[in-house]
Specification:
This protein is an alpha+beta fold. The chain contains eight helices and four strands. It has a single domain, classed as H-NOX domain, CATH 3.90.1520.
Length: 174
């Protein structure tokens, strides 16, 4: 069951929610943006992602739109008081110390996430996630935005493999 991913994503785009988007969130995802439930099914998270991507990035492919939504949501979070403080601490600790903690971070959003991180060099790592749903580029956008907020130059986030559920990504920078 999900809650935090839905609430956080909606909160980061709240100023852009039109009556049409709010109506679609309610009818297609079962999510009333004014009322936060203790949990939501995985299908609701996927529907929220699709609706927001389609509405906020019209005319783009779903892969491009979900990538942009991932970028937008994490960059917006990074500019909140909590996000700015968190990213400042991460910059001080160093990227690879934080990367090693990603499996636990993902488990905070859902208790069955199986995330593995393999550090491949001082400036690259790969992440394998057992269930990213139908929109793997949302997480790719999140990781791209995080790397930009960390100040990584020459950042590249690639989707290496996706089978409809499991995805593997490579993150590298100069």
């Amino acid at each position: 069951m999900y809650r935090d991913g839905i609430v956080t994503t909606i909160d980061t785009v709240r100023s852009r929610l039109t009556p049409r988007i709010k109506a679609r969130l309610l009818s297609e995802a079962g999510v009333d943006e004014k009322v936060s439930k203790p949990s939501y099914p995985f299908d609701s998270l996927n529907a929220v992602t699709r609706v927001l991507a389609e509405e906020l990035f019209p005319g783009r492919s779903i892969d491009e739109a979900t990538f942009e939504l991932g970028l937008l949501s994490l960059k917006t979070y990074g500019h909140t008081v909590m996000g700015a403080a968190l990213f400042a601490v991460i910059r001080l600790l160093g990227p690879l110390k934080i990367v090693k903690r990603l499996p636990g971070t993902f488990r905070q959003f859902n208790n069955y996430a199986e995330v593995k991180v393999e550090i491949t060099s001082e400036k690259s790592w790969e992440l394998d996630h057992n269930e990213v749903g139908p929109y793997p580029h949302m997480i790719r956008g999140n990781m791209q935005a995080a790397g930009e907020l960390f100040g990584w130059k020459g950042l590249e986030v690639k989707l290496l493999h996706y089978d409809g559920h499991r995805a593997r990504y490579r993150v590298s920078w100069e």
